[in-house]
Amino acid sequence: MPLILEVALPVPLDAIFDYLPHPHTAHFRQALGCRVQVSFGQRKLIGVIVGHKQASDISPAKIKPIEHLLDLDPILDPGWLAKIRWCARYYHHPLGDTLFSCLPTLLKKGEPADALQDQIWFTTYLGQQIEAMPKTPAQWRLLQMLRQHPHGLEVSAISAQGFQSTQLHKLRDKGLIDYRQEPKLTAQVSGPLLAEAELVLTPEQTSAVQHIQQAQGFHVFLLEGVTGSGKTEVYLQALRPVLARGQQVLVLVPEISLTPQTLHRFRRRFACSLVALHSGLSERERLEAWLAAKRGAAAIVIGTRSAVFTPFANLGMVIIDEEQDASFKQMEGLRYHARDLALKYAQEAQVPVILGSATPSLESLRHALAQHYQHLQLTQRPQTNKPTPPPLQLLDIRSLKLQEGFSLPLLKRLDTHLQAGNQVLIFINRRGFAPALTCYTCGWLAECPQCDARMTWHKEPPRLHCHHCDTQQAVMLTCPHCQSEDLHPLGWGTQRSEAFLQQRYPEIPLVRLDRDAVSTHKRLQTSLQQIQQMQAGILLGTQMLAKGHHFPRVTLVAVLDADTGLYSSDFRALEHSGQLLTQVAGRAGRAHQAGEVILQTRHPDDTNLLELCQHGYSYFARRLLEEREQLSLPPYEYLAILHASGKTREQVHQVLTEMAAHLHPYIQATRGVEEADSLIQAQGLNAIGPFPAPMERRKNRYHMQFWLQAAQRAPLHETIAASLRYLRQHKQARTIRYAWDIDPWDTLG
DNA sequence: AGCACGCCGACT
DNA sequence: GTCGGCGTGCTC
Ligand SMILES: [Zn+2]
Ligand SMILES: [Zn+2]
């Protein structure tokens, strides 16, 4: 009986490839989930066996045999494989490429899937009984030490005591001691699970913990609580019984909050093994963590977006902190959303999920309001924490003179807070010195030669820098257009405000936090420590200030320009802007002192801004939901965006236009047309475009978009699949790059 | 994606 | 003459 193996390969082709079993390996039935080396065209590739069948659809002459079987035991179990299959289908991404983008790099390269082993030395029966024997004093001391460790001792601990491996082997030759091999990371921790006492909870926290602990099977909780309301303590107490049952917990956190402090919070509480998957890990450490989770040796796995692909032996709960955070959505390649995948996986594993947020996404809020999720709200802050955040005050700067972006009333408030020995936090949404460089004589603006964008002016090092393609130029001294020397910065960036504030407050320490200032993790940690030690001080920065870190001495929060995002073409801009402003505002206030939040604006009458300031995020978000429903936008309807780019605008336009025409039968019955003779028509599918993307030219490529909007998932996915079938057989489509973004986070792509 | 093959322009 | 540009075809 001819048996054909189906192999997934790391190629962007929507196909699985058939191979014959290894000539000398009879164990092919167990090979599902094992890696193989195969010849593919002219190259050698590592693949994964994802299935088998009796016969192939292609000519037997073309089928090659597998060259090597790399794993004796599968590295992927059928459950994990099923998840990857679902993910590939949902995001319309090739299975092979999906599977490989989820694996640790060392496994992709074909390294053995073996955990690092420890030698554990222990005394034999003879070694325990023996009383005295002529041997060197060192060997005697070594034997005595091992006798005190009935479960054995790692070789690293033994050599740390100054013993040599020859001494170990001498004793072993005498039959007094022996060793066994064990993976380095183990779950076994002796003693009680709780390593520290649990904090006293507020009534709201208590109720939240009880609800979560009582959950049976798949159940989603939206834990909504302002900054400092104690969400983390709820996570910790909710997951304790899960660990006590011997199950594992997955904790997903935004990129910026995976800090030593966050990890410490978990490590300090539980005497159990915890692995953190962060960008600082070496490939070996990443593989060790992955394997530890897979064999159940990691009780808690904390990680960022990609940690959602960690395999678990016995998953018991999933926690997603700051579930609205942008970093959970991958924006290139496999454009997955870690929160959405985690929800899907938890449903499969029948385990509860906690979505935590101070500013929930409209997606999650909608599910909570529709009772799909259980809404748990924390409105009080525990006494030890800051008081409830102060209201947001709008400061109308239309008629005010600005000094480097600061109005006089704002500067006066800065003076007051700094004189009182407090810290102030200033939020500016642009890094660099100024977002543009302009000529006062002729109006020329420094633009990127490769993009439809202005060059950002940086002072240190002095350079013009495009934030979209990384092009850098020296700062010119004369205008290239009119030779005038009248060149000036336009707008304010963090470096410009830094210079201004240092000059205005020379005595007061200032820390700038943005991508340029904290390019490494170390520098960020140093800056944060500096802030902890300051009395009066100025914190200045971008988004980074809004997330994660706590600044206990800040009493004034100022937003230099609250208007970005109010009039953006992106339909999610308002939601994100409201979340960001609320998060920044949450940094204000000390333990026994209410804070102050000031937003400079040129639109003090803007309804959205007023609602956010007067009624808070919860109310604001509910209003946005109503708007989205009226406009049939997510989360009420589903959206997918096809991003395409090419060397010329015409190329891209032509291919997309032809594709749109081809999709016409799927779409023709757009809203309002009464021709319900097919499922698609009955369910309404809207096509928009093709049209030039915002910032059409990027890195010298022309970008266009094509949108599909639908009330139901099924027809949307059917049409996307049809579009890909069409593009794959289209000759000229090969000259352009294209990719669908399912459930896009923003419309820029 | 990668890699080969094939067909034209412009160089040591 | 050949080096190298990229259009086209293919990968079990
Ligand atoms: Zn000029
Ligand atoms: Zn650019």
List keywords for this structure.
single chain; 749 residues; alpha/beta; Arc Repressor Mutant, subunit A; Rossmann fold; seven-stranded parallel sheet; 32 strands; 23% strand; globular; binds zinc ion; DNA-binding; PriA_3primeBD; zinc; hydrolase
Question: If you had to describe this structure to a student in words, what would you say it looks like?
Answer:
The longest helix is centred in the last third of the chain and has 24 residues, at 607-630. The model is unreliable at 670-682 (pLDDT under 50). Helix 5 packs across helix 7. The protein has six domains: 4-108, PriA, 3(prime) DNA-binding domain (GIY-YIG endonuclease); 117-183, Arc Repressor Mutant, subunit A (Orthogonal Bundle), CATH 1.10.10; 203-376, P-loop containing nucleotide triphosphate hydrolases (Rossmann fold); 392-430 and 493-630, 3-Layer(aba) Sandwich (Rossmann fold), CATH 3.40.50.300; 432-491, no CATH class; 638-742, 2-Layer Sandwich (Alpha-Beta Plaits). The protein is built from 22 helices and 32 strands. A hairpin with a 2-residue loop joins strand 17 and strand 18 (406-407). By secondary structure, the protein is α/β, with parallel strands linked by helices. It has a seven-stranded parallel beta sheet with strand order 11-12-10-13-14-9-15, with helices on both faces. Strands 16-28-27-19-26-25 form a six-stranded parallel beta sheet, with helices on both faces. The structure holds zinc ion (2 copies). One zinc ion (ZN) binds next to loops. The structure holds a DNA duplex (12 and 12 nucleotides).
